[in-house]
Write a structure and sequence with these properties.
single chain; 137 residues; mainly alpha; 0% strand; transmembrane helix; transmembrane; membrane
């Protein structure tokens, strides 16, 4: 059906994350967070549908209707919004579950440690780039 080099993070990962979000919405007790989960599911569904539409459209051919020109932008907002909201949703879910379960506390600690290590690596890359640019001029 679709033969794309980037299909993993454009189709399969959003589908798997949609299933995780549905499970989180079923398990979660607070109604407010369920709205965030369903909004996130909506973003991923929009992104997957737009991706399939764009991949099935022949390259170089004009769009059949004017609204098809907006599909790549919808995909862009859907995929980035979906990934960002998933990070927020997973963090909110773990914080709420950490009040009752020890495993959630451990996972939350590992997640915070991972984010700190990611920040340190990003700063290392930034300072390395600044150091390299220093010798150019």
């Amino acid at each position: 059906m679709l033969h794309d080099d980037y299909i993993l993070f454009r189709l399969y990962v959003p589908l798997v994350l949609t299933v995780f979000l549905a499970i989180m919405a079923y398990v979660h007790r607070k109604q407010l967070f369920r709205y965030i989960y369903f909004g996130n599911i909506f973003c991923f569904v929009i992104a997957v549908v737009c991706y399939v539409l764009v991949m099935n459209h022949p390259a170089g051919q004009p769009y059949s209707t004017p609204w098809m020109a907006a599909v790549p932008f919808l995909w862009l907002f859907g995929i980035f919004g979906g990934y960002f909201l998933f990070l927020v949703s997973a963090f909110a879910f773990l914080v709420e579950m950490a009040q009752r379960k020890m495993l959630a506390r451990v996972l939350l600690g590992i997640g915070i440690l991972f984010l700190v290590l990611l920040l340190i690596k990003a700063l290392f890359i930034l300072f390395g780039a600044i150091w390299v640019m220093r010798g150019v001029y």
